[in-house]
Amino acid sequence: MRWVTYRSSDGSERCGLVQGNKILGHTPGMTLLDVLRSGEGLEAAAAPVTSNPAEIVDLAWADLLAPIPVPPSVRDFAAFERHVAGAAGGTISQVWYDEPIFHFSNPAAIRGPRDDVPVPAATTAWDYEVEVAAVIADDCSDLDPATAEDHIAGYVVYCDWSARDLSAREMGFVFGPSKSKDAATSLGPYLVTPDELEPHRSGKGYKLAMNGYVNGELYGGGGWDEIHWSFGELLAHASRDTTLRAGDIIASGPVGTGCILELAGRRDYLTPGDTVRVEVEQLGAVEARIVAKGDTRVPEMKISRSILIAAPAAAVFDVIADPHRHHHFDGSGTVAGTITGPARLTLGAEFSVSMVLFDVPYEVTNTVVEYEENRRIAWAHPGRHRWRYELEEAEGGTLVTETCDFTTSPQGERVAGSAWGRRDAEAIEKTLPRLKALVENGRLPGRP
Questions:
Q1: How far apart are CA 107 and CA 184, in angstroms?
Q2: What is the distance, to the nearest Å, from the Cα of residue 318 to the centroid of all Cα atoms in its chain?
Q3: Is the peptide bond before 189 cis (omega within 30 degrees of 0)?
Q4: Cβ proximity of 230 and 252 under 8 Å
Q5: What is the mean pLDDT of residues 13-28?
Q6: This prediction's pTM
Q7: Where does the pLDDT of residue 444 fall: very low under 50, low under 70, confident under 90, or very high at 90 and above?
Q8: Beta partners for 221?
Q9: Angstrom distance (rounded) from CA 157 to CA 276
C-alpha cells in the first residue's frame, strides 16, 4: 500500500490511500499519525477507506504534505559505508563498525515533498542528502535485530538538508551536528508499506536505486542494497533502553555520493534558484526549489510571459489551435499527448490530454472558452483555471503572450500561492521558446 498525507480543498489535513492515480481520502482531520497511534494497523485502516472514501482526489494535483508532518522524534543514522568513507576522506573510525551511529534531527523542521527549501542565513555550503527512512508502526522498545523490521509501518524518501560549513565547525566538538542539521528535512511523497518492497530485497536492504539530481542533472547516488547496517539493526540500536513511538522516523543517512560533500571540487553547493530531486526507486521523489531565506511568495493570479515570433499571427495560431501538436512545444514536461480532440480547436471544443506530473499519469479534458481567430484562444482546465494565448502584430512578427489565469478558479488563490504557481511560471518560460522554434523553423532545437 501507498499512503499519503494531503491538504484537502476544505483546508483540512488528512491521510489517504493511493490507488492508481487517485487518492482515496480518509475522514477530515484523520492523519497517518492518528491511524498508527490507534493500533489498528494500516491494512485494517485501508478497508473502510477503500470501500467508502470520504473523497476522491487526483494524485497529480493533490497538495501533498510530508506523510508524517510532525513526527514524535527523528533519528538520522549513517548506515552507508561508502558515504562515511567519502565524507571522512577514506578513514572510518572503528566505532562506526562497532555500532550504528545517529543524531537527533528536528521534528519541527519537516517539509513536504514539493515544498521550497530556504538557505539558512549562516551558511554558504548548503547541501542535500539522498536517504531513505522507516516510519515506526507502534510503540516498541529493546527490539531484536532479527524481528525489528516487523515494527516498520513503511518507508519514505528522506532528504536531510545540511549546512556543511557549520557542520565542519560543530564536528570539532563532542556533541556532533546541531544547527547544521536543524533547518529543514523533506519527507515523502508516499509512505510505502514493506510488502511492496519485498520482491526487491537484496542483502541488508533492497535492490533499489537512490539518486540525487540538481537542475535535472544526475549528481550521484547508489543502491539501497549497499547499506552496511540493516534497518532491523538500526531499530534495535535506537530502541535499546528506550521506547520508539508510533510515527517516529528512523533515517538511513545518505547513500554513497548522495550529497555534494562527497563531490567536493567537482560540484558547487546549492544556491537559490537551484532545483533538487531526491529519488528512491519505488518510493518516489522529493522535489524542492532552493530559495533565499525570507523569500515569501505573493500569489500571482495571472502568470504571463511573452515572446516575439518571426512569423504571421495565422502561422502561430495554426500551431496553437491544433491540440495534437501541444506536446511538441510543451515546456512543462507534463503533456504526454492528445488522446481525443478535433484537428483544429474552436469555441466550445473539448480535447483530452494524457499527462504525467510528479511521475503520476493522468488525463484531463479541457474546453475552449475564449476564441478569436488568429488573436486569442483559451481553454479551461477541470480546476477552472485557464490557459490563454494572445497574439498581437508587432515589428518583426507576432508578439505571443501565454497566461495561466487563476482568477477564474474557486481555488485559484490557494493554488497560485503554492508551488504550483511557481511551476506554472517556469513551464511558460520553457514553452514559449519551444513554440517559437517550432513555428519559425518547423522543428524544435536539436531535432532534425
A1: 9
A2: 36
A3: yes
A4: no
A5: 94
A6: 0.85
A7: low
A8: 211
A9: 13
110-111 and 185-192 beta bridge pairing: parallel
Q: How many Å apart are CA 392 and CA 174, to the nearest integer? A: 66
List the Cα angle 118/120/125 in 5-degree steps: 100
Contact 1, 15 (CB under 8 A): no
* Distance in angstroms (rounded) separating the CA atoms of residues 14 and 65: 9
Q: 16, 3 in Cβ contact below 8 A?
A: yes
Contacts of 199 (CB under 8 A, 6+ apart): none
Distance (Å, rounded) from C-alpha 180 to C-alpha 120? 9
DSSP state of 281: T
Residue at 353: amino acid letter:
V
Q: Distance between CA atoms of 62 and 396, rounded to whole angstroms?
A: 42
Write out the E strands in 395-446.
397-405
Asked if 392 contacts 399 with a C-beta cutoff of 8 angstroms, the reply is yes
Q: What is the pLDDT of residue 420?
A: 65
Q: Return the C-alpha cell found at 350.
A: 473539448
pLDDT digits (tens, 9 = 90+) for 191-239: 999 999 999 999 999 999 999 999 989 999 999 999 999 999 999 999 9
> SS3 sequence, 347-379?
CCCEEEEEEEECCEEEEEEEEEEEEECCCEEEE
Long-range contact set of residues 439-448: C-beta below 8 Å, sequence gap at least 24: 439/309, 439/311, 439/315, 439/316, 439/319, 440/309, 440/310, 440/311, 444/328, 444/329
By CB atoms closer than 10 A (0-12, 13-18, 19+), residue 425 is middle
**From the CA atom positions of the chain, what is the Rg in Å?**
24
Joined together, the cell numbers standing for residue 254 give 545518505
Query: Grid coordinates representing 291?
Result: 530559495
AA identity, residue 68: I
Strands 102-104 and 131-136: unpaired
Which residues lie closer than 8 Å to 156 by C-beta, 6 or more apart? 66, 67, 68, 132, 133, 135, 187, 188, 190, 191, 192, 249, 283
Torsion of CA 189, 195, 200, 204, to 10 degrees: 90
Amino acid at 444: L
Q: Give the Å distances, CA to CA, from 111 to 69, 164, 355.
A: 7, 20, 26
Q: Is-contact 352 323, C-beta < 8 A?
A: no
H or E stretch covering 160? strand 152-160
Would you say 78 and 157 are in contact if contact means Cβ atoms under 8 Å apart? no
Maximal CA-CA distance, the chain: 77
> Residue 152 corresponds to which cell in the numbers above?
516498520
Pair type for strands 376-380 and 360-372: antiparallel
